[in-house]
């Protein structure tokens, strides 16, 4: 597929896809006319990259861990430095904190939505049965 289709399928601007290629995160072949050509695997890869970037990982770390995200999952880092391990641990912990926060926010929104919908249903039932009091002052 060409860059436009990859962009459309992943919701990623073409400019960012070119940047990912420059950083060695994705690889594009070239057609005879010089256009970039991506295989189907790039759709998942771009989504993984975006998720990792959204989680706060820098591209230099993403480039190192991307091979671990392929199937079969063979995890082996002959060049894992103490700094890289510390960075990954820090980022993992940050993601865990973010997940907790997102979960709390989702639960709060769900509770609010349930209350609003319940209240709305009650109002609808009262209105359809004609049991409402006249809200205008006497």
From TrEMBL:
Domain HTH merR-type: from-to ranges: 1-68
Keywords: DNA-binding
Identification of the protein by name: MerR family transcriptional regulator
Taxonomic lineage of the native organism: Bacteria, Bacillati, Actinomycetota, Actinomycetes, Streptosporangiales
């Amino acid at each position: 597929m060409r860059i436009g289709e990859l962009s459309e399928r992943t919701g990623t601007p073409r400019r960012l896809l070119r940047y990912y290629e420059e950083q060695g995160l994705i690889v594009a072949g070239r057609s005879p006319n010089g256009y970039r050509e991506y295989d189907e695997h790039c759709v998942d890869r771009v989504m993984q990259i975006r998720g990792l970037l959204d989680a706060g990982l820098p591209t230099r770390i993403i480039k190192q861990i991307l091979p671990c995200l392929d199937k079969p999952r063979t995890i082996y880092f002959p060049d894992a430095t103490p700094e890289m391990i510390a960075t990954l641990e820090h980022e993992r912990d940050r993601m865990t904190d973010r997940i907790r926060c997102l979960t709390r926010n989702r639960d709060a929104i769900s509770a609010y939505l349930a209350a609003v919908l319940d209240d709305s249903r009650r109002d609808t039932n009262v209105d359809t049965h004609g049991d409402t009091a006249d809200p205008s002052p006497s």
